[in-house]
Write a structure and sequence with these properties.
With 461 residues, this protein is of the alpha+beta class. It folds into four domains: 47 residues, no CATH class; 152 residues, Elongation Factor Tu (Ef-tu), domain 3, CATH 2.40.30; 68 residues, RNA polymerase II/Efflux pump adaptor protein, barrel-sandwich hybrid domain (OB fold (Dihydrolipoamide Acetyltransferase, E2P)), CATH 2.40.50.100; 175 residues, Helix Hairpins. 49% of the residues lie in helices and 21% in strands. The chain is built from seven helices and 14 strands.
Length: 461
Amino acid sequence: MPFAEHPLEETNPLTAGFRSFRRVQTPRTGRVLARWLALLGVLTIAAGFLPWTQNIRSTGRLTTLRPQDRPQQVPSTIAGRIVGWNVREGQRVQKGDTLVEISEIKEKYFDPKLLERTRQQLAAKISALEQNEGKTVALGDQQDALRAGLAVSLDKARNKVAQTRLKVSSEEAGLRAAENDFAIAQRQLDRQEELYRQGLKSLTEVEQRRLKFQESRAKLQESQNKLGASRQELTNSQLELSSLQAEYQDKIAKSESDRRSAVAYQFDSEGQIAKLRNELANLSIRAGYYAIRAPQDGYVVRALKQGIGEIVKEGEPVLTVMPIAPELAAELYVQPMDIPLLSVGRKVRLQFDGWPALVFSGWPGTSFGTFGGRVAVIDNIDSQGQYRVLVTPDPDLEAWPQLLRVGSGVFGWALLDDVPIWYELWRQLNGFPPDFIGLPANQPGQAKSDAKAEKSAEEEY
């Protein structure tokens, strides 16, 4: 209902004739403005009790949760010279496709038949080792034969010593018999000569006795000579028995030395064979590195080397490959004072560069163009004064845009507790941290789901 211009004049007609009285009255516009200000103050006070979701704001970029999904620089395993490109930038490749071909630049590998010649060296060394093994076996057999021969020769020499000792005994017995005969012949000769001087025996009989005496003396001398020869033979056989052991021991020692030399050569040959096999395997593997292949399915993003004939060093990147369909994650950086408020599985709202959005950080439900996520990883160490947090898509909410690219910017805010607006204003004016006690008040029963999400995210990471 419209207000009267002079309400006092309508109620009291006596004041109509006084101009000063009309001038001291409150204008109608002032009263309207006061009423509107009072209404606005009431609304402002009421709005101060509306719920406000506390949050932690941060910026970052898009990356991938799995390291194998991130852009990968493909290096050259060996040093070489580029001889041909089989791809172009932006081309899709599959795992194992040849990207670049290089040639050898080290003079050690210039020989085109180096692999074949190394195989020949290995075959020759193996044949030499087999022959040496045969030599080792032969030397072992030779030692066995020498030991067997030594045993036989020792038995033979011992038998000869025993035979010679028996012969000496026999000769000693013969000598004693000859000495007895000689003594008897001596006495008989003396008696015959005594009887001859007495004239009882003839000269003929004496001469016969003398002949018998000479024969006995000759037999005695012969027995003595035989005994001496037998004793000398016994000494020689004993010396031969003693020298036989030393002789065969020398032969066995020489054979053992030859066998050990053959065994040492065998071990050395086995070492050289192992070295040649290692070199052959290295050459075979190196031959496969002349073609730089794609490590996984993806797109060739950028060539880091250009042209034909350019030299690449060992381990130097040649091009970059971006894997297909990476598992995206938002890489956000949070201040150290806000890290205790975050936990794995906590909800986050994200705004991506290139996607228009109307953001009300305190009322995430009214924001437009933002996407949901959950904290998957929180680093345990800082990076240049801030902590890195990885956020993955929330499976319960809308999916992230398909056209997102790794490296694009992202703005996010982690959702905390719900508090009144007046409290949030008072907290920010005083510079206090968010009033975080537990889980957001508007998410009952979230503890179990967050615990499961934290466990699954940690296992997945």
